[in-house]
Amino acid sequence: MKKTHQILLPLLFISLPAIAGEYAVVSNQNMKDLTLIEIKAIFLKKITLIDDVKIVPINLEARDDLRLKFEEKVLNMSFSRLKTYWTKEHYLGHRPPISMKSQESIKAFINNVDGSIGYVNIENVEQNMKIIYKWSD
User: What is the mean predicted confidence (pLDDT) over 15-30?
Assistant: First the structure.
């Protein structure tokens, strides 16, 4: 019986499908609809105003799993490529988006600052937020 458990238990974990996460780029309800190209430009600070409103992109901390997924899937850039990009931009006087410690911080910022845009797990989207773009693993 013990040998059967030793064989079946690992097989159980191998056969479980990976659960895909769903995520969203969000803002407050006043933000206009944006394309993926515009979202990328906002987070690279190439777009800073929309309809005379200052746009404030918000990142999670540098090595946060969701931030790495966002950079890969939405910005289509690796951590090292973004680091190189922001090093060059630094010498031009440009600063990267502000970073927050948690999705809760991002949600609070978006609820209080017009023009702010960030990303969260889909289950963290609140009713007063506008989903600009969705992606999954």
Answer: 80
Q: What is the mean pLDDT of residues 101-125?
A: 97
Distance CA 37, CA 94 (A): 20
Q: What is the DSSP letter of 95?
A: -
How many other C-beta atoms are found inside a 10 Å radius of the C-beta of residue 15? 7
Residue closest to 43 by CA, chosen among 72, 23, 22, 20: 72
Measured from the Cβ of residue 78, the count of other Cβ atoms closer than 10 Å reads 12
* CA quadruple 1, 18, 99, 120: dihedral sign: negative
Cβ neighbours of residue 88 closer than 8 Å, sequence gap 6 or more? none
> Which of the following CATH numbers is that of domain 18-136: 1.10.10.10, 3.40.190.10, 3.40.50.970, 3.40.50.1820?
3.40.190.10
| pTM metric for this prediction | 0.84
The C-alpha angle with vertex 132 and arms to 46 and 137, in degrees rounded to 5, equals 95
CA distance 119 to 74: 10
Where does 16-126 have alpha helices with state H?
A: 36-43, 65-73, 79-91, 103-112
